[in-house]
């Protein structure tokens, strides 16, 4: 896990749980005068290694339960009694799961880009649903594939390219 912190040490603690790794944008969501925010790239995402996109990466331990345990270990390691938890995208589902498991450790819960992680949502995003909203961008994504792979499941086609 890659961890960084910003803000005054004596300020209110907060944790940022992004869906795919922290960026400078996540840091700007907190006033450093008011919050000591901990930003971390959870297992397999962002700058953490091994990265989940690597074909050699073993993912059996990358479970929601283990990610929640990682967050709690980090809170204990940093000697934080309670903290604000912010989550976006997959991080919103993870933040909600953490707050459900450790409700006495969460002072506030801020969620954005909320999704349930259901197959239907991923299919809409990555298998033509989004294409109806952004047809030019979708076609550009499809046209980047070899001709024979442009028909059918675009996700499977990109997976084959990555192997």
- The ordered string of helix (H) and strand (E) elements is EEHEHEHEHHH
> Reading side by side through the largest sheet, how are the strands ordered?
1-3-2-4-5
Shape descriptor = elongated
What does the largest sheet look like?
5 strands, mixed
What is the CATH level 1 assignment of the largest domain?
Answer: Alpha Beta
Helix/sheet category: alpha/beta
Looking at this structure, what is the CATH superfamily of the largest domain? Alpha/Beta hydrolase fold, catalytic domain
Taking the alpha carbons of the first and last residues, their distance comes to: 25 Å
Helical element count? 6
Walk me through this protein's architecture:
With 163 residues, the protein is an alpha/beta fold. α1 links the parallel β2 and β3. The chain is elongated, with a radius of gyration of 18 Å. A 5-stranded mixed β-sheet has the order 1-3-2-4-5. The protein has helices at 24-27, 64-77, 90-101, 119-126, 135-143, 154-162; strands at residues 2-6, 12-17, 35-41, 83-88, 106-112. It has 2 domains: 2-112, Rossmann fold (3-Layer(aba) Sandwich), CATH 3.40.50.1820; 119-162, no CATH class. It has 6 helices and 5 strands. The model has no long low-confidence stretch (mean pLDDT 87). The relative contact order is 0.13.
């Amino acid at each position: 896990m890659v961890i960084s912190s910003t803000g005054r040490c004596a300020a209110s603690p907060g944790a940022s749980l992004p869906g795919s790794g922290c960026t400078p944008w996540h840091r700007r969501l907190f006033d450093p005068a008011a919050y000591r925010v901990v930003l971390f790239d959870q297992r397999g995402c962002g700058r953490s290694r091994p990265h989940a996109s690597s074909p050699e990466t073993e993912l059996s331990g990358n479970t929601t339960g283990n990610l929640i345990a990682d967050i709690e270990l980090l809170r204990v390691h940093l000697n934080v009694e309670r903290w604000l938890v912010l989550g976006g995208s997959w991080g919103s589902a993870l933040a909600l799961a953490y707050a459900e498991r450790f409700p006495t450790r969460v002072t506030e819960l801020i969620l954005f880009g909320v999704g349930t992680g259901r197959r239907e949502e991923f299919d809409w995003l990555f298998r033509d649903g989004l294409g109806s909203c952004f047809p030019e961008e979708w076609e550009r994504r499809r046209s980047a594939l070899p001709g024979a792979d442009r028909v059918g499941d675009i996700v499977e086609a990109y997976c084959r390219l990555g192997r």
